[in-house]
Amino acid sequence: MAQNTRTAPVGTPTDVTQNHTQGGVGASTLRPDGTLKVTGEFAYSSDMWHEDMLWGQVLRSTVAHAEIVSIDTSEALTTDGVYAVLTHEDLPAAKNYGLEFRDTPVLAYGKVRHHGEPVALVAADHPETARRAAAKIKVEYRELPVITDEASATAPDAILVHENRDDHHAAHVPHPNIVHRQPIIRGNAAEAAKRADVIVKGEYTFGMQDQAFLGPESGLAVPAEDGGIDLYVATQWLHADREQIAPCLGLPQDKVRMTMAGIGGAFGGREDISMQILASLLALRTGKPVKMVYNRYESFFGHVHRHPAKLYYEHGATKDGKITHMKCKIVLDGGAYASSTVSVVGNASSLSVGPYVIDDVEIEAIGLYTNNPPCGAMRGFGAVQACFAYEAQMDKLAAKLGMDPVEFRQLNAMEQGTIMPTGQVVDSPAPVAELLRRVKARPMPPERQWETAGEGADVRALPGGLSNTSHGEGVVRGVGYAVGIKNVGFSEGFDDYSTAKIRLEVINGEAVATVHTAAAEVGQGGVTIHAQIARTELGVQQVTIHPADTQVGSAGSTSAGRQTYMTGGAIKNSCELVREKVLEIGRRKFGSYHPAWANAELLLEGGKVVTDGGEALATIADVLEDQAVEVEEEWRHRPTQAFDRVTGQGDGHVQYAFAAHRAVVEVDTELGLVKVIELACAQDVGKAVNPLSVIGQIQGGTTQGLGVAVMEEIIVDPKTAKVRNPSFTDYLIPTILDTPTIPVDYLELADPNAPYGVRGIGEAPTLSSTPAVLAAIRAATGLELNKTPVRPEALTGTL
Fold it and tell me: Which positions fall inside the Aldehyde oxidase/xanthine dehydrogenase a/b hammerhead domain (predicted)?
């Protein structure tokens, strides 16, 4: 395969070699990139540089729904320093891309469907020149009515966001503006309701959350001598990107070569295409490398967000506290393009019952097409919205029955062997009651901590913090609990696999393993975990992690809590195959010298071949000498099934994860200010491959759940479908002063079906942290609070 012979861009990832005498599975080995990141020396995708590169810029729509009457690029083309200006008319091949449906235009043609949609591209010799030239492009729009909610989307005479749908769900939905509908029916909820002594209903609203990663969308596209493209980009799924990019460039996939650049966070927002196709188009048109870096304003339009939702729930229970039935309808707003809405709907419906035993359910979840911003993957993926609603319902039921909210949950908690509403048996540990017991048993943080500072109040410990608006008057404490259930890995029959290439060789007299996968390191710790697994399976100290790229088979997406399970499983599998090859070489070389080569169980430990009794037979270096052993293999989890379109029955998920939280808050009820004092979590992690990373993941997920509880929301104007707050000035995320103490208590109850018994950990804490905070605020104020985020005006009655 012909390769580009240009000088490699500055910032290109290189091999990372880790040398640890101890550092296998179960050790808290440190990240090899940790010091570089905290000292500012780590090269992110936005730091990449090529000596003769151009800069790309996108022109985006200023309206949410309109016909494009004309696009005039003449003034932009005549700007000094501009090398190219592209519209949809300049696209060489396919005009659409998409994760599940190919419904998203590379550049808008015919009409725009959401505020901020890409309409034109500019390449210039300086980023400011590119921005000024893009501003000179004149687009004439004929505005159309906007679709912004379920009522406007599903009205009989509703304008269709997408005419002439031909996707595989189009024939199965009641309206063309419904992307997907998933019902789940089990038992008879109407009959079961007759046995209920109490029934509670609730309507809940979950706001649109942004992933708010600090590293903006960015990358570098370099044209190659063979007519292909070398793309260095921050993404979550290299091979899925390539499958979408290649048709839009008119290239075969093997001419689109992708390398993972340094990533500054992801959380689902990099699972879809952002600037990859755009930069590549400009590079191929100009024959020069093109770098694109979105600013923060552009980033809010450059990736999908978490689906906002309306949720309608009904639960019943007997007077002794047993839940009789559940009915719910979940409406998810997918925005203008499908992205992963189909799968989010599947998750929301199948997990809508929560971690509880309820035999009689009637569930419906739908995802809408609207003219709001596109929504797709974000940490928690449909289960977050459902957890917010069903946990509020649990508190309402407990209150109506006069029961303790934790004891009520424990009474109805699922366990191993419980049958899900989909008919699937939970066949691994489900310690829901124990997680709740642990968070409840924790000692409470001291009250009125601001008074412990000696003279005067420490305002940092008060609601409102350094704004100095409260000095403790009207401050009330509240405590709330929540627990959630999240699937791990890709579901509903998806062929979920990962690939690992492992090489073992002798360098300078020492056995060295090289791990090569396409798994995206987005901060979750794969760069450490992969080396730990190789070290454990191959018994070597030195492990080199090859940069992730498309020169090895797919590792799937770094999402759904799947990478330690899937790519970890692939690495373990390939290492086992390498080990067998090494032992076979050893048997041929040394088998006649010791009977253990033929009769004993042999392992690789400490750079040696040893028996299970600990006797060393040879060093790996002596066995291999100048020979290298290399294996590249795919590895799959057990198969899953699609949910039935009518009943929702099917073994749709491969694994479940559970987390519980206790939130302690202090609320200034006069000013509507909230201070979260502590947000304790207990979670089953199956096996802590790296305990330090486990705690970090749980605390990170907890913090994102805190954000959506009290501050995070993208505000979309319901009349124009325009985004009102696309900046970190107006879209607020928790800072270190907002983030409370997050004690973590994790269990290691192995899943027998998973490598090392691991369980995905990154998403579950995002579920239950939000409703725990809301429950604590309700306890402090006595207000119902059925919407996220809780704003001061909702607490003071000035909404």
Answer: 39-145
pLDDT at 3: 45
With tokens 């199965």, the residue in question is: 172
Q: How confident is the model at residue 14 (pLDDT cuts 50, 70, 90)?
A: confident
Residue with tokens 């997918």: 334
Residue 6, pLDDT score: 56
Chain center to CA of 153: 27
Nearest to 148 by CA among 721, 743, 763, 731: 721
Answer for the pair 384, 307: CB distance below 8 angstroms, yes or no: no
CA separation for the pair 658, 354 (Å, rounded): 10
- Cα separations in angstroms, 535 against 33, 419, 540, 634: 18, 39, 5, 20
3-class secondary structure per residue, 574-613:
HHHHHHHHHHHHHHHHHHHHCCHHHHCCEEEECCEEEECC
Contact yes or no for 463/674 (Cβ under 8 A)? yes
DSSP per-residue codes, 532-572: HHHHHHH--SEEEEPPPBTTS-----S-TT-HHHHHHHHHH
Give Cα 405 to chain centroid, integer Å.
Answer: 30
Element (DSSP H or E) covering residue 232: strand 229-233
pLDDT of residue 2: 43
CA distances from 186 to 61, 190, 275, 447, 487 (A): 45, 11, 44, 46, 19
**Confidence label for 1 from pLDDT (cuts 50, 70 and 90):** very low
Q: For 306-419, where are the E strands, in sequence order?
A: 309-317, 323-333, 361-368
Bin 417: left if φ > 0, else alpha if -120 < ψ < 50, else beta. left
Q: Is 756 helix (H, G, I), strand (E, B) or coil?
A: helix
What mean pLDDT is reported for the chain? 96
CB atoms under 10 Å from CB of 596, counted, come to 18
Give the number of other CB atoms < 10 A from CB of residue 41: 10
Q: Is the pLDDT of residue 82 over 80?
A: yes
Q: Quickly tell me which residue has 């870096």 as its tokens.
A: 293
Tokens 């569930």 sit on residue: 363
CA dihedral sign of residues 703, 705, 707, 712: positive
Tokens of 609: 């071949």
Q: How distant, in Å, are the alpha carbons of 184, 419, 420, 642, 646 from that of 650?
A: 10, 11, 10, 6, 11
Q: Per residue in 705-725, pLDDT tens?
A: 999 999 999 999 999 999 999
Give the SS3 label for residue 479. strand
pLDDT tens digits for range 363-398: 999 999 999 999 999 999 999 999 999 999 999 999
Six token digits for residue 207: 């706001």
Q: How far apart are CA 235 and CA 559, in angstroms?
A: 11
Distance CA 621, CA 511 (A): 6
SS3 (DSSP) at 412: helix
- The answer to whether 62 touches 22, Cβ cutoff 8 Å, is no
Helix, strand and coil content of the chain, in percent to the nearest 5, comes to 30, 25, 45
| Helical packing angle, 383-401 and 341-350, nearest 10° | 20
Q: Tell me if 648 sits within 8 A of 182, measured CB to CB.
A: yes
744-747 and 673-684: which strand pairing? parallel
Measured CA to CA, the distance from residue 486 to residue 658 in angstroms comes to: 7
Q: What is the CA radius of gyration of the chain?
A: 27
Tell me whether the omega of the peptide bond preceding residue 145 falls within 30 degrees of 0, making it cis.
Answer: no
**Residues near 624 by beta carbon (within 8 Å), at least 6 away in sequence:** 504, 505, 506, 511, 582, 585
Rounded CA separation 659/657 (Å): 7
φ, ψ of residue 573 to 5 degrees: the values are -65, -45
Instruction: Record the tokens describing residue 497, joined without a space.
Output: 């696999």
Backbone angles phi, psi at 21, to 5 degrees: -75, -35
